[in-house]
Design a protein that fits this description.
It is a single chain. With 516 residues, this protein is of the alpha/beta class. The protein contains 22 helices and 13 strands. The longest helix is centred in the last third of the chain and has 34 residues. Keywords: Glycosyltransferase, Membrane, Signal, Transferase, Transmembrane, Transmembrane helix. GO terms for molecular function: UDP-glycosyltransferase activity. Belongs to the UDP-glycosyltransferase family.
């Protein structure tokens, strides 16, 4: 598989060299050391290498082995240091967060504990270490830096302070609104149909998040990397820095966007999209399976199902005619050994993007990570989402609102609940809506559009797209015309007072004339 990928990349690079007149750029990609964050940048880097650019990928060295994943795609790897936390320590925090059901629980005590764990995980993620590294090296050696939303207010601030072109990527839009509007805040697990209670909750969460950020700045070195403290201005995503959003409107809620924001749809590896060979044993298992007769299950790389939940899923599927391919992770081996191998194929690793293209796959049961959501819907496969933490609840709500899948909270995962969900997917038009979503995603532009934007910004810049209030650093008084409104109000009051005084004078004179 590796040899075929390298051959494919070499062939594409030769074609790009012959056909593409764009000058070669030196591009730096900077990612947090987690696969869900790195996948998009790895795909962009792969495409830029094919187009003949010199690409460097940088992150922390840890258990994900991003060094290997980037170099096999033709990129140079630049280590920003080593992540101190082990995978077991990180997974322990993830498991604790998952047990709280995130902000979706709407339990104040659970929400406070979720915020505390989230606050605890930030320094362990290594984003401060990455920022320290890039503050101490020469960034002028690159024409453009591309980073992702987990490093917001770190890498963009440093790059802007050194006058280096920088671009952000994200799976969802969470920048400032213009005009301001209470869209569901990040990790709120709300739909865009916001009532008074939901809008109130978002406002309260805003102040709580600000409190935790302030408290964190007193305890850690976070404030050293905040734009406001270090560089005297905030970096506005989509207004001052280009914002490449790797989803589509329809799954994401439509809203007013900033001039430098572009939706490109899922950014998927072209080499993996063109890879149709599955492992031999999996291919043999699928050989006699009918079209749309298989359910694919994956709970991601960081979360696993409890034995009880796994058994409920098995019991629920037993009442259907489906076969199952299951990326099992760390589920109890005793349960796996008891599964009928003719009906279930289980493995600790499944080539997901290749499998989802197979005609036998009917639906997917996923944990709600943005990569899995987009990959499934890209191929028109409806989803049952069992979210565990963070923005997985947001994606579960979006999938449900778009009518391309259903959400099951972990306490709702029973054999009956799963069986009913599968039947709803089959009978209530979810497949048809998922096929429509697939069309929207493929028309978004994907990896090619993302690479074109990087090439354009790296070659020509984007100053011409920055609005005046951002370019000239207006404060909120100027932006909302508060000073103008005050002057107009004072003027109006003055006119009213003058007119009122004039009327009193006229009335007084008339009274005196009558007395004479």
């Amino acid at each position: 598989m590796k040899g075929k990928m390298k051959a494919y990349l070499l062939l594409q690079a030769l074609l790009a060299y012959c056909m593409c007149p764009v000058s070669s750029l030196d591009v730096l990609l900077v990612s947090a050391p987690f696969p869900g964050h790195a996948n998009c940048l790895l795909a962009i880097g792969e495409e830029l290498v094919v187009r003949g650019h010199n690409v460097t990928f940088s992150s922390l060295d840890n258990w994900v082995n991003l060094r290997h994943k980037s170099t096999e795609r033709g990129m140079r790897y630049l280590s920003a240091g080593k992540q101190a936390v082990t995978q077991a320590e990180w997974n322990n925090i993830i498991s604790k967060r998952a047990s709280l059901q995130g902000f979706f629980s709407k339990n104040p005590l659970a929400i406070i504990e979720e915020l505390r764990l989230l606050d605890q995980s930030r320094p362990l993620s290594g984003i401060d270490e990455i920022a320290k590294y890039f503050m101490n090296i020469n960034l002028q050696q690159w024409d453009i830096i591309v980073t992702e939303h987990y490093l917001t207010h770190r890498i963009p601030c440093i790059a802007k302070s050194r006058n280096v072109t920088v671009v952000m990527t994200s799976m969802t839009y969470f920048s400032n609104e213009s005009p301001p509007w209470p869209f569901p805040s990040y990790e709120s697990a709300y739909s865009d149909n916001l009532g008074f209670k939901e809008r109130g909750f978002i406002v309260i969460m805003f102040f709580i998040n600000r409190f935790f950020a302030l408290a964190n700045s007193f305890r850690t070195s976070f404030d050293k990397f905040s734009c406001k403290e270090t560089f005297k201005y905030p970096v506005e995503l989509g207004w001052e820095v280009p914002y490449i959003i790797t989803t589509v409107l329809g799954l994401e809620y439509p809203r007013t966007i900033s001039p430098l924001t572009t939706y490109v749809g899922p950014v998927l590896s072209q080499a993996l999209l063109n890879q149709h060979l599955l492992p031999v044993d999996l291919n043999d298992w699928l050989r006699n399976k009918n079209n749309k007769s298989v359910i694919y299950i994956s709970m991601g790389s960081q979360l696993s199902l409890s034995d009880k939940m796994a058994q409920e899923i098995i019991n629920g599927i037993s009442d259907t005619d489906y076969h199952v391919i299951w990326s099992v992770g760390d589920i109890n081996k005793d349960i796996i050994l008891s599964i009928d191998s003719s009906r279930y194929y289980t493995s600790s690793w499944i080539p997901q993007l290749t499998l989802l293209q197979h005609s036998s796959i009917s639906m997917a049961i996923l944990h709600g990570g943005s990569n899995g959501i987009h990959e499934s819907l890209y191929f028109g496969i409806p989803i049952i989402v069992i979210p565990g933490m963070g923005d997985q609840f947001d994606w579960a709500v979006r999938v449900s609102d778009a009518g391309v899948g259903l959400q099951l909270l972990r306490h709702e995962v029973t054999s009956r609940g799963l069986r009913d969900s599968i039947r709803r997917i089959d009978n209530d038009g979810y497949h048809k809506r998922a096929e429509k979503m697939s069309v929207l995603m493929k028309r978004g532009g994907g990896i090619k559009r993302a690479a074109e934007l990087v090439e354009f910004y790296g070659t020509y810049g984007y100053d011409h797209l920055i609005p005046g209030p951002i370019k000239y650093k207006w404060n909120w008084i100027q932006y909302y015309n508060v000073d103008v409104h005050i002057v107009l109000l004072v003027g109006l009051v003055a006119i009213v007072m003058i007119l009122k005084r004039s009327c009193k004078c006229c009335t007084s004179k008339k009274t005196k004339i009558k007395q004479i």
